[in-house]
Specification:
Helix content: 25-40%
Low-confidence stretches: none
Radius of gyration: 23 Å
Oligomer: single chain
Bound molecules: flavin-adenine dinucleotide
Strand content: 15-25%
Structural class: alpha+beta
Length: 546
């Protein structure tokens, strides 16, 4: 009989994926179960920033900002294809809660906490100069603007690359597999029960010495399911919505940090992929975490805030091409307004071998993972000092170990990604746009996509005329990137759900045929998959009806 796992991780968002990778690299026996797709929870619904979190400075959360800017540097090094510097501009208007001089001081602190190793130091532009820099800004009352740097990522892919590396290091990771219960003996966890949600609903008993719950906004639900007997809710989730517009609505060169003229909250206008993204909201949410979408009031608030800052841009809900909405898994505490709740994480270690990790952010996932795994090892050692006698955990070296797409990017870092794109053009004859896209998304793994294009030339065709995605990526998603459904492919691997003008509905039938051929679907499964994807698109458009 196979050995029990040391750790079973519940949840395949960025936190769980980071934990599985960290634990597997230490040489632990680890399994991870994700009830949907990897990253399908909050970890594909973020603002996609790897950032220090400028606004946390305002709350005096210096430790969090320092940790975050340090991680920004680490992530840029270990995943340069996924975590890239992005220039930001924060305009300051007369009457803003934070004036130009205070913001300037804040950014000095921000740069200092980054030990002056940010992708670039901040610059202050006063008066008219700010308007020249970004003519789409409202001129009236503009006191100045400050330029600074943070990083942008593809959150879902960051999760996926952690999962791929965890699997390469021996972790047993399964998506569409739900943890439905736990078994204890003499007060200690000995097994979990899981159910495959796609493969006919088969159940399995998985033996383990410990469990780490990394279920993000589902933490309280999982705690109930694992009969943890919690006294009250651990989380106070808040909803955050993003709207996607065609780039022509506001053709920005850089991201703009907007202080909403409606309520003084910080929001962003971000050029992402070929579109412009506006976000986010921050409102208390006490519903079902599986039922979250943008509603009409979210769309109206974001459009109004942005329109007051960019008067000529004509933001309006009817120009929105896509939306996404997620829940911040914030720790419950008594706080006045939702935006004041701390982003820091907490780890709870229970006597029965169940650990919970909650809170945190995408940016600091590596640190959270490290702390959670160390806490689990400490607990395991305490209850069974022989467990690691002949297999002492080693250091995982995640601070320097490249994520899979970065392996072979030479030189390591952004210059290597540019060079890779040039090589794809020269060696594979790819168009510059396609080569830059593939290098930027897959890193050195882009060569495998290019190989598919070479072997089956019809896979080299673009999926849509105004976007760089090619059909080979759909095949790659299934063959290499662990996608199991149409939604997995079109929402996260080749995210036409977020950036396609028709959200991928125009190509869904062909995509389903291509995916189904690889996964052995019959007509009924394929039709069910297409119908399910259409429902996902409809949910993302609910803001149109209320
Ligand atoms: C609007 C918004 C914007 C944000 N922007 C940023 C940003 O720009 N930068 C940043 O650093 N952070 C940002 N964050 C925070 C960041 O996105 C989250 O902290 C992070 O993604 C949480 O990851 P997680 O893995 O803990 O949770 P999740 O990604 O939600 O993962 C939990 C997973 O558990 C799974 N699960 C639940 N129950 C079970 C079960 N019974 N069995 C198996 N699996 C189960 C779920 O399906 C889910 O996939 C943002 C958050 C929001 C909501």
């Amino acid at each position: 009989m196979s050995q029990p796992y040391d750790i079973v991780v519940v949840g395949g968002g960025i936190t769980g994926a980071g934990i599985a990778r960290d634990a597997a690299l230490r040489g632990l026996r680890v399994a991870l179960f994700e009830k949907g797709d990897y990253g399908s929870g909050t970890s594909s619904k973020s603002s996609k920033l790897i950032h220090g979190g400028l606004r946390y400075l305002e709350h005096g959360e210096i430790g969090l900002v320092f940790e975050s800017v340090s991680e920004r540097r680490v992530q840029g090094r270990v995943a340069p294809h996924l975590v890239r510097p992005l220039k930001f501009l924060v305009p300051i208007f007369e009457g803003d809660r934070v004036g130009l001089e205070t913001m300037n001081i804040g950014l000095w602190i921000y740069d200092t906490l980054a030990l002056f190793r940010a992708p670039g130091l901040h610059k202050t532009h006063r008066g008219e100069k700010a308007h020249e820099l970004e003519p789409s800004l409202r001129r009236e009352g503009l006191r100045g603007a400050i330029e600074y740097y943070d990083c942008i990522t593809d959150d879902a892919r960051l999760v996926l690359e952690n999962i791929l590396d965890a699997r390469a290091a021996g972790a047993d990771c399964r998506n569409h597999t739900e943890v439905i219960g736990v078994e204890r003996r003499r007060g200690r966890v000995v097994a979990v029960h899981v159910r495959d949600r796609l493969g006919g609903g088969g159940e399995e008993r998985i033996e383990t010495h410990s469990v780490i719950v990394a279920a993000g906004p589902w933490t309280d639900q999982v705690a109930a399911r694992l009969e943890l007997g919690a006294a009250g809710p651990l989380l106070r989730p808040t909803k955050g919505v993003h709207l996607v517009f065609p780039r022509e609505v506001l053709p920005l060169e850089r991201a703009i940090t907007v202080i909403s003229p409606v309520d003084g909250r910080v929001m962003f206008a971000i050029p992402w992929r070929q579109r412009l993204v506006l976000g986010t909201t921050d409102t208390d949410f006490d519903g079902d975490p599986d039922q979250v979408w943008a509603d009409a009031s979210d769309a109206a608030y974001l459009c109004e805030s942005a329109s007051r800052t960019f008067p000529d841009a004509r933001f309006s809900p009817d120009r929105v091409i896509a939306t996404w909405a997620g829940l911040r898994p914030l720790i419950h505490e008594e706080a006045e307004a939702a935006s004041d709740v701390s982003r820091e994480h907490q780890i709870y270690v229970r006597d029965d071998g169940v650990l919970l990790i909650a809170g945190g952010k995408l940016t600091t996932y590596r640190i959270m993972a490290k702390e959670a795994v160390r806490a689990a090892i400490r607990w395991l050692n305490d209850v069974d000092s022989d467990l690691f006698e002949d297999r002492k955990p080693v250091r995982p070296r995640t601070k320097t170990r490249p994520l899979p797409g970065a392996v072979g990017v030479d030189p390591p870092g952004p210059r290597g990604v540019v060079r890779l794109a040039a090589e794809l053009e020269a060696d594979e004859g790819l168009a510059p746009k396609t080569a830059a896209h593939l290098a930027g998304v897959y890193g050195a793994r882009a060569r495998q996509v290019a190989e598919l294009m070479r072997h089956e030339p019809e896979l080299a065709a673009p999926m849509q005329p105004d976007l760089p995605y090619v059909w080979a990526e759909v095949v790659f998603a299934v063959e290499q990137d662990l996608a199991r459904t149409v939604e997995d492919v079109l929402a996260r691997r080749v995210p036409l759900l977020l950036v396609g003008l028709d959200q991928g509905l125009d190509v869904v039938d062909r995509a389903a045929r291509l995916i189904g051929r690889r996964l052995g679907w019959d007509d009924a499964v394929r039709e069910r998959e297409v119908a399910r994807y259409r429902r996902v698109v409809a949910d993302s458009r609910r803001f149109r009806s209320g």
